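Please go through the protein record below and see whether the fold suits the sequence. Record follows.
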Amino acid sequence: MQHMNILVITDKLILGGAEMYFCKLENQLQHPDIYFHYAAGPGELYDKIKHKNHFSEISRTKHLQNIKKLRNLITDKQIDVIHANSLRMVLYCIVAKKLTKRKFKIVYTKHNITVLEEKNPFIFIHLLNKYVERIITVSEFEKKNLVKAGIKPNKITTVYNGVDLNQFAFHRKEKGESFNVGILARLSEEKNHELFIKIADQLRHNPNIMFYIAGDGPEKEKIKNMIQSHNLVHKIKMVGAVHKPEEFIKEMDLLLLTSYREVFPMVILEAMAVGTPIVSINRGGIGEAIIENKTGFLINEHSVEEFCNNILVIESNEEIRKQFIENARRKVQTEFSLEQMVGNTLKEYLNCS
C-alpha cells in the first residue's frame, strides 16, 4: 500500500469530550503506512499534544483564515483523508474541497447534537450524504438516529469512546465514615444539577451520605445559590474544576448522572473503569454501557424518589455494590478500551483508501 496522509481536526482544545477524544487520537494513532497531521483551535489541552511538530493551530473565530490555512495544509501535506471532529470542521472541509484540486475524503465523528440537525435537518442530511465518506458515531443509539433521519446506513460505523485503563486504574474501596455521592459534569443547564440538589435535599436526614459537585461552567453561581436556599451547605460541597478526573471518581462511593440529554458521556466509562458504581438517567447511548441491575442502575425519568431509592440500595447492600463494580470493570476492559477505539478508528481511515 502507498503512504496515506491524514489530517485530524477539531475546533478547540478546551476541556470537553470531543477535545479529549482528539487528544487520545493524537497521542495514540500510529500506522506504518500513514503520516498523521493535526490541527485545532487553542485551549488548555494543548499541553496534552505529543507531536507538536505535526500540529497546526487554527483560530476559534476567524473562519475564512482557517479555511485558507486548511487549504494550504491539504496541498502542502497532500492530505488524503480529513477526520473532522465537529460539524463546523466538516463545513470547512466542504468549502476547502471546492477550493483545492486535491480529492480528499472526509471522515466525521459525531460527538454531539448539532444546531444544524435541529434547525434544518434536510440540509444536515444532504451535506453528510453527499460530501462525507465515513461517519463515526459514539453510540449505537446515535447511529440509529442518523439512519432514521435519512443518512445512508453503509456510511456509518459505531466506534465507542475508549478509556485509558492505566490512567483510570481500578481502585478497590474500603467503606469509610461517610458515603460520598458525586457528579462530575460541566456546570451547564443540560446537566441538570437541580435534580442532584433535590436528591441531596431528600436525603438530608441521612447523616453519613455526603454530596460533591465537581466541574465548572456557566451555572456555577446559580447552583451555589440553590445549595444555599435549600440550606444544604453542610451536605453538598462544590469542588470546582477537576484536572484529574480519576482522582475525584476514586474518592466517590457512587456517581450520579442527571442530565436532560446525553449522547454517550465519557464519565460513565471512567467510573466503570475506576470501580465507582453509577446511578444514571437513561438517555442517549448510556444504556449501552450501563446494563440495568448488572453494571449499574438506570432510571428512565428524572425522579428524585427513584434516584434516592437506588442510592440507598447501593449504600446499604455490599453484595450489589461489589457485583456492579466487577461487572462494570469487566465490560470496560472488553468493550471500551482505548486500544479498541484507536484500532477501530484506523480501520475507518483505511476504508477510505
Observations:
- The longest strand covers residues 4-10.
